[in-house]
Amino acid sequence: MLLVLFIAFADGEVISEIALLERVGLSVTAGRRWIAHLVGEDHIELREDGGGVTLSETALTKLRIFLDEACDVSNWLVSVRH
Description:
Elements (H helix, E strand, L loop, with lengths): L1 H9 L6 H8 L3 H13 L3 E3 L6 E3 L1 H25 L1
């Protein structure tokens, strides 16, 4: 869910709860439990206008750091092989 929301953020797209659940392949029941958990952990936010689900600023920052570090590791592995 977090990566789907990160990509949507990068594309300037707002995703509804149902569209998010469809993209990650979860049933509505299980998906809403996960959404509630991620809201409770301050990873995602429900838009006040009822228009969708977004990443929190905290989650955006953590995902950017994680992806930057993953790219660094990947680049290092490529350089070691050559």
